[in-house]
Write a structure and sequence with these properties.
seven-stranded mixed β-sheet, 13 strands, 372 residues, homodimer, 44% helix, 13 helices, alpha/beta, two-stranded antiparallel sheet
């Protein structure tokens, strides 16, 4: 008999939102406790598990069994959930399956996969019958420290990414560190990029920890993997709790490295760089701008570069035309009335925003990362 | 120069919701004031007017000019918005247009048309960039007293109606009574069915007014059209404010006549009856059940029938197999675990709900309205 007392487990964070508060559980083997955690979160009815094919069959079975053991009648749908599947057409497949299963408002949806999975399944859960509860079980490091927390759900249109979506807060998020053991090293590094970003913008102590233990963390060895992920989750949760709808000055800070990162992804047609890799290069450009604006020293730019390289993340960009890239930055969603709101560093663990950056400065910072 | 002081106009109701409070303005010529009203509601940016083709060109032009006069840069999209267009495919057309126009989160969407229009445009506004403000300008009586208030937005799937949607509260609702003058008489009657429903479930006084002035109201003549619509709007607004997400015991009362009504629409494949007409017949069945359950007298059933007939609404049903209809009621979204929650009358202007109704009683009440 499985014995588990939810009260005994400390969440890494509790996210406070207008749609309710929810816990983010982080540990090795966390999936085993999904049943009792869902009960504690007040989720009842049947569980509709929607998983990325990459999790099939082993990890899907573990989740399925844990849900059944928790007393949830469970049904599973396995889909190929790469970036190219993040469409209204795939959401419609989910709707059709839920319709066949006669899923009701009192039932719940459980997503299991990377960032595409939580984005797409979150959107489907936000809109099925005008909204049913969703629980996220992220299986990539990037999804753990970023996509699964904060309720941003969306699908892409041919004309642009994440254009159709919803703010759909989950009722619970389960991070099972075990799942990372089978993750390709390159994807792991892309996940660390987002965690390093959290340190750079908000937590000097975490930045020091990353610098002291980069190789161990990159290899998932040593005792610090779980505490570092917990701290990264905590930072993301604090920001989301303070600025749920990105209408204030907090949540935008998470876009550090993303203005150029998104542009890099767009001009390379999402085929060359993983999101975290593009963000890594984007952070180098943002740091270069920060330095040129007199906000930080060149030494901090170097510190950032060295750290990212130790995680085997790219810090330079080749075969990209700077004009095309600059053009792509202005079509980013975050620009309002043509003026880009840049997220810049003003010190280690401290970020700020500015709309007052000249094209000349951007171009110079960009030139620093371009190699031919 | 157009002069208008929003404070001087009294809204018919203010709807209080978790997404913010909003006013419902009801008057002849109300559209002229849409600009100042939107400013007062804090809506800025550009206005993206999405209108049913039936409103083109005359009424669309009036709205367009009123928006421009109010200082809103306005762009219009005209679509055929019949029930068959209430699909994800049509929503995608809206997304693509908004993408072409580079509509941003600070812009707003204005819907203009009947219930399909506010449902579909409301859904598109709920999901475009994870949500942009929406203002509804309903042009049918049914949309005025029902669909435009309360934030229920949705599209249909081939497998069922309203399966994909959102709770998306508008920032403002404008009822221009002038728009009703060109409405076909049959559609007008279908709208009155929902207003009469509000009286039957919640307002004995309004019921008396309907009984005293049925023919005048049906013909849109006399002085009572506006006050009666205002009162009906007020009832809907009170219910929505008390039970925004239909999780309590208030909002479900609005489904009086709808369990059978939806089933009638489904088995006749949405081709025979307008929604309000199906609800009219459904209310007769619900009244028949109420009487058989000992909740009301036969006299009240007769009163209801007489009133509906004076609005030229159908109160009997032909060419429908009772078993098929009964089967269709159990697939209605409102049933949970197979048990239908019936909305029943317990007096004039008073409603209640019950899951404890035998199939025998339903069948008997159904037989009363079936003619061969």
């Amino acid at each position: 008999m499985f014995n588990y007392n939810p009260g005994a487990q400390e969440p890494a964070a509790t996210v406070k939102t207008s749609q309710g508060d929810y816990r983010v559980m982080v540990s090795r083997g966390a999936i085993e406790a999904i049943g009792p955690e869902m009960r504690q979160a007040g989720v009842n009815g049947r569980a509709f598990l929607i998983a990325d094919y990459a999790m099939f069959p082993l990890l899907v079975r573990r989740a399925h069994e844990a849900l059944e053991r928790g007393g949830y009648e469970t049904h599973a749908l396995i889909l190929e959930l790469g970036e190219e599947a993040k469409t209204i057409a795939t959401a419609t497949k989910v709707y059709e399956w839920l319709a066949e299963q006669r899923a009701e408002r009192t039932d719940c949806v459980v997503s299991m996969g990377g960032g595409v999975t939580s984005d797409l399944v979150g959107f489907a859960a936000a809109t099925w019958l005008r909204g049913v509860p969703v629980v996220h079980v992220p299986t990539s490091l990037a999804a753990m420290v970023d996509a699964s927390i904060g309720g941003k759900a969306a699908v892409n249109l041919p004309i642009g990414k994440n254009l159709v979506g919803a703010f759909k807060q989950p009722r619970l998020v389960i991070h099972d560190i075990d799942f990372l053991d089978t993750l390709p090293r390159r994807e792991l590094a892309a996940g660390w990029a987002e965690a390093v970003k959290h340190a750079l913008i908000l937590d000097d102590d975490l930045l020091n920890t990353f610098e002291t233990h980069a190789e161990d963390l990159a290899a998932l060895s040593g005792d610090l993997v779980e505490p570092v992920i917990r701290r990264s989750v905590e930072i993301k949760a604090e920001i989301v709790s303070a600025d749920e709808f990105e209408t204030g000055n907090d949540r935008v800070l998470l876009n550090y490295g993303h203005t150029i990162g998104h542009a890099i992804e767009a001009v390379t047609e999402y085929g060359t760089y993983l999101h975290g890799e593009a963000v890594s290069i984007g952070m180098m450009v943002a740091a270069g701008i920060s330095q040129r604006q007199g906000l930080i020293s060149e030494e901090l730019v170097d510190r950032q570069r060295t750290l990212l390289k130790r995680f085997e993340l790219p810090v330079v960009l080749s075969d990209v035309d700077p004009d095309t890239l600059l053009e792509a930055t202005t079509s980013d969603k975050k620009s309002r009335g043509g003026k880009i709101r840049w997220v810049l560093l003003r010190g280690p663990g401290r970020a700020t925003t500015s709309r007052d950056v000249s094209t000349k400065v951007v171009r110079a910072a960009l030139n620093d990362v371009l190699v031919s």
